[in-house]
């Protein structure tokens, strides 16, 4: 009877341990390890075709905002993106993003990843502030 109890306790501990590993949030920043020093340019292409290039201080804020996006493997069935972002890296590579932050949306998709990323309210507010400032100019 003691052996059955020990096996049961071992199985419970094993199952709990496996669940904790799966629950860890993967963020865009932890998945891609891209720092601001790696980026030479960030261009935002708005829905009307206008392209906005972010200055250095806004690139830092933008990268900080997307770095905290939490990965979700689900498929999107959503309206067209509010805008597209292109991150040009100093090594010449480019990363494309599609972003949905209006009308209650708070997510973006990296064109090289399956799934999408969910933004917290602070990151969404930062991104909206950057876009709104640029559109007003």
How would you describe what is shown here?
The longest helix is centred in the first third of the chain and has 21 residues, at 2-22. The protein has 137 residues and is of the alpha+beta class. Strand 1 (39-46) and strand 2 form a beta hairpin. Residues 17-23 have low confidence and may be disordered. It has one domain (26-136): Dna Ligase, domain 1, CATH 3.30.1490. It is built from four helices and seven strands; from the N terminus they run H-H-E-E-H-E-E-E-E-E-H. Strands 2-1-4-5-6-7-3 form a seven-stranded antiparallel β-sheet, covered by helices on one side. InterPro entries: YhfM-like_dom (IPR058780). Residues 56-135 form the YhfM-like domain.
Strands, helices and their partners?
Blueprint lengths: L1 H21 L5 H5 L6 E8 L4 E3 L2 H12 L2 E3 L10 E7 L4 E7 L6 E4 L5 E3 L2 H16 L1
Antiparallel strand pairs: 1-2, 1-4, 3-7, 4-5, 5-6, 6-7
Helix pairs in contact: 3-4
Mean pLDDT value: 84
- Total strands: the figure is 7
By CATH, the architecture is named: 2-Layer Sandwich
Figure out the total of helices: 4
Can you summarize this structure?
Keywords: Signal. The protein has 137 residues and is an alpha+beta fold. The chain is built from four helices and seven strands, in the order ααββαβββββα.
List keywords for this structure.
137 residues, alpha+beta, Dna Ligase, domain 1, 7-stranded antiparallel beta sheet, 26% strand, YhfM-like_dom, YhfM-like domain-containing protein, signal
